[in-house]
From TrEMBL:
Protein name: Dihydrolipoyl dehydrogenase
Listed PANTHER family: DIHYDROLIPOYL DEHYDROGENASE, DISULFIDE OXIDOREDUCTASE
Cysteines engaged in disulfide bonds, as pairs: 47-52
Domain Pyridine nucleotide-disulphide oxidoreductase dimerisation, residue spans: 348-456
Necessary cofactors: FAD
Length: 468
């Protein structure tokens, strides 16, 4: 018998096992569906294998190294601090392995069938899954596409051993002496900072007026101040022109201030955005509509133009965030099960693991004003928080955006240590429809960074205790 002669039936078929796909598969299985998930690479997708998790592991290790070098003001003197970069990479790999094996265990524990291979739509109820040896048809009632995205390659910076995408930068065998980063978005800033902490001489070239364009300038200015302390050269309004590769490094040419400049380095990292993985799926076979950016058009339940096919994550409009993909995965699985679930992005946080960290949720001050909302912006500095002082991390602030008429919390921005953790309370406040008074009346443990949220709420109410 030829393999693939007879279609295998399933209720819900998920294409892609990243943070969107595997979460969708598990939620669908919890709701009683027979689920099959197809993945051509490693379980966990870009996020767990070559994105969010390994990059944060590298950032964490870089902080340890930096702290070991710079602890004299605490009365701690260290001698002969050294970096075993291969050991660092080995540890980073162990973190990834734990999480990816955990995803496999969760899928199997929820009775999700895992299939390795590439999926191609035959029609709106059948896909063909192919690997190197065989092909098999699967018949489904509903499908969820969660194929993620890949780094954009510039025509004048073709990826190679010396011209790296984020995956290449995370898997270097050696710590670069010099590194040029093209693109000052969150990936470029995070990895540039991590390598600077490890002693690499870093240059960041950003084409726009500022790095981290999605955040307010009063937030990014604190990050730039931190980068300057690390001797990172940030060049804005810089247009990367080309690269000349040599045996031992690269020479990058760029234009800034009307002049052509060059900078030499061991490697150049290109982080100028990502493209959705929507080609080579056979979407045209079933009539799934894409917009002019190649993103799949979906409704509030993540349903595409084809009624029984859903799409989530980086392949649909919105920020390419792992937690957005997971959220949409749950919504799609619930919609398939007949529940009235719909996406609501007002409480969707965005975080950059820069130094200090940046985090935002809900409306910014400017966004609220643009929509004609009468708001109050209340700021509280990290420098007035006891825990921040004890951590010696006093740069930054929290800004709470509340509606003037009733004190409703509609947004928050944080620039400061552990902003990625502190932002969660503000997301909950927005989701639950809480007011500044609700937060101010909540007893926060002392001394903690969480108190900054309470203090900002008190500023919004006009009753601050720890600042004038």
């Amino acid at each position: 018998m030829v393999v693939g002669d007879f279609p295998i039936e399933t209720d819900t078929l998920v294409i892609g096992a990243g943070p969107g796909g595997y979460v969708a598969a598990i939620r669908a299985a919890q709701l009683g569906q027979k689920v099959t998930i197809v993945e051509k690479g490693n379980l966990g997708g870009v996020c767990l294998n070559v994105g969010c998790i390994p990059s944060k592991a590298l950032i964490s290790a870089s902080h340890r190294y930096e702290n070991a070098l710079e602890s004299e003001e605490f009365g701690i003197k260290t001698e002969k601090v050294s970096l075993d970069f291969s050991k660092l990479q080995e540890w980073k790999g162990s973190v990834v392995k734990k999480l990816t094996s955990g995803v496999e265990g969760l899928l199997k524990g929820n009775k999700v069938e895992i299939v390795k291979g590439e999926a191609y739509f035959v029609d709106d109820h059948n896909i063909r899954v192919m690997d190197e040896k065989s092909a098999q048809t699967y018949t489904f009632k509903n499908a969820i596409i969660a194929t993620g995205s890949h780094p954009i390659e510039l025509p004048t910076f073709k990826f190679s051993d010396r011209v790296l995408d984020s995956t290449g930068a995370l898997n270097l065998k050696e710590r670069p002496g010099k590194l040029v980063v093209i693109g000052g978005g969150y990936v470029g800033t995070e990895l540039g900072t991590a390598y600077a902490n490890l002693g690499t001489e870093v240059t960041i070239l950003e084409g726009a007026d500022d790095i981290l364009s999605g955040f307010e300038k009063q937030m990014t200015s604190i990050v730039k101040k931190g980068l300057k302390k690390k001797n990172v050269d940030v060049v804005t309004k810089a247009m990367a022109k080309g690269v000349e590769e040599t045996k031992d490094g690269v020479k990058v040419t760029y234009e800034a201030g009307g002049k052509e400049e060059t900078v030499e380095a061991d490697y150049v990292l290109v982080t100028v955005g990502r493209k959705p993985n929507t080609s080579e799926l056979g979407l045209e076979q079933v009539g799934v509509k894409l917009n002019d950016r190649g993103l799949i058009e979906v409704d509030k339940q993540c349903r595409t133009s084809v009624n029984n096919i859903y799409a989530i994550g980086d392949i649909v409009p919105g920020l390419p965030l792992a937690h957005k993909a997971s959220y949409e995965g749950k919504i799609a699985a619930e919609a398939i099960s007949g529940q009235p679930s719909e996406v609501d992005y007002i409480g969707m946080p965005a975080v950059v693991f820069s130094e200090p960290e940046l985090a935002t949720v809900g409306y910014t001050e400017q966004q609220a004003k643009d929509e004609g909302i009468d708001i109050k912006a209340a700021k509280f500095p990290f420098a007035a928080n006891g825990r921040a002082l004890s951590l010696n991390s006093t740069d930054g602030f929290m800004k709470l955006i509340t509606r003037k008429e009733d004190g409703l919390v509609i947004g928050a921005q944080i620039a400061g240590t552990n902003a990625s953790d502190v932002i969660s309370e503000l997301g909950l406040a927005i989701e639950a429809g809480m007011t500044a008074e609700d937060i101010a009346m909540t007893i926060h443990a002392h001394p903690t960074l969480g108190e900054i949220t309470m203090e900002a709420a008190e500023v919004a109410l006009g009753t601050p205790i720890h600042i004038m």
